[in-house]
Specification:
The protein contains 6 helices and 37 strands. By secondary structure, it is mainly β.
Length: 564
Amino acid sequence: TGRQVSNEEMKRIKMRPNPFHGEWNYVIEPSSPQWSHATFIHLRFLSIGFLVLGALVLSCMPGLLRASVALPGPEKRTLLLVDDHDVLYRPGTVRVLRPLDRAAENPVIAVDKPWETLIAYCSVYRDPATGHYQLWYQACPGCYLCYATSRDGIHWTKPDLGLVQFQGDKHNNILMQWGYGASVLVDRHSSDPARRYKAAFWTRGEKIDGRSIPGTGVAFSPDGIHWSEHSGNPVIRGSQGHYIQPPFAGDPRIRTGELGGPPLSTSDVTDAIWDPKRETFAIYAKTWLDGPDGTMHWKRAVVRTESKDFLNWSRPELIMAPDEFDGWDGDAREVERVSVGGGSGGVQLHSGPAFFYNDVYFSLLQIMDARQTGLQPIELALSRDGLDWERPFRKGDPFLPTSPGEGFDAGRIWSNATPVILSDEIRFYYGGYRGRWNQKGARDRQHRPTGIGLARMPRDRFAGVRPLEKIGQITLKAMELSSYRGLTLNADARKGVIRVELLDDRGYRVRGYSKEDAVRIFGDHLSHPVRWVDREIADLEAGRYRLRIHLDHAVVYAVTLTGR
């Protein structure tokens, strides 16, 4: 139905087999009534009657199924118009990005502890049953992984955990040290309760010939507070080292780390997710590219690696890198080592935290301009498989620009892979500080103020389609619609009107579902119901149909089909 499930109902959710196919359904069991003994006796005899009747019905079930028009479809399917994946064509229209809205309460977590010189990377989790928030963030110097909680996601508490000493005192909210670039995810399907919370971060692990080997480490926790680092860290040997030509294969200094880490491996910015489409854990991480002259550790880019158990990871694969469309400042200046934090100048991808939502992979690319502006805003990138990515919004306003003036996020923004999806909005938490990449000086003075910020977006409004001038239409690819009972549009028609019609699989209009039969849509709503004068989606015969959305001074962001 799409309605919100209450906390009391959450306790009564059970899995039950669906009698029509081999899948399972989640159901909310009714509250247990107080039966009298007499009622119980009557129900026993009544249940026997239903069993007999049920046996007769089941014996006829094959025929009933063959005679039915359509079996129940998916309960809900949302088509995001952030790209043309579901679009056949859309004459007279243009796609527009919708930048995020900053919260007036920013920063929602400010620096107020002596171990918090600057705050950068963070991860957030909201318990869907209780609404309780957990947030993990990096505090430097010292690379401390810290912890905060909230009931509403706006007002946060830094609890006194008593776990890690800071200057001889354990009265702090520190979880562990050397959690640099840490990313935390909650594995709700973990078979091991002690590993329900998983973290990936940059660390220095084993020593070879007295040299610590840097790389990606992992840790596990039952509650997000008490952590156990994996004894075999690093699980991925990281990319970090000197400005040299790649070593020759077989050089013994590779094993000892004397020549740095392997090319195109993970580096010190890490974002871990569970990928439900590919059914695997994945890490999107910063890596280093070789430069125009072949020298290593030139500019930053993004790699992805996968694991089924969070311990054994595939070889990282390069998925996004800066190119000529990001700008070029001439050979000499592009290879000049001027960036604070290593590497060269110019525009590069500091990292690309990614998440999967409504059949789309989104990446919140950190666009680092190391030379000209020194800023690091966030660009929205898209993928349909998590590997091949597009950057359709690289020109124009960023998805989340740095703030003007001298605010805590005026210089650099550190995105993450853990948006909070609510019924009416999507929340994006981020780290930020004022310092720019092209600034030099004491880090304490350079970066403050710093903190954790919040940016919002009305649900599913990443980008929308509107007319280039007054009118336009979007024709979606043909799909089976008779399995659905309802259709809604996430759209803004405050200045105009929207009408929806149906075409058959060959492109002919369907009687009763034409533009003239459509009930006009006005106003701004996340779920405009789509109707016709005397027809509904549920009245359709089985078959494939094309949805056509007519826009008149209006913008549409998403189409949602609800199951029968």
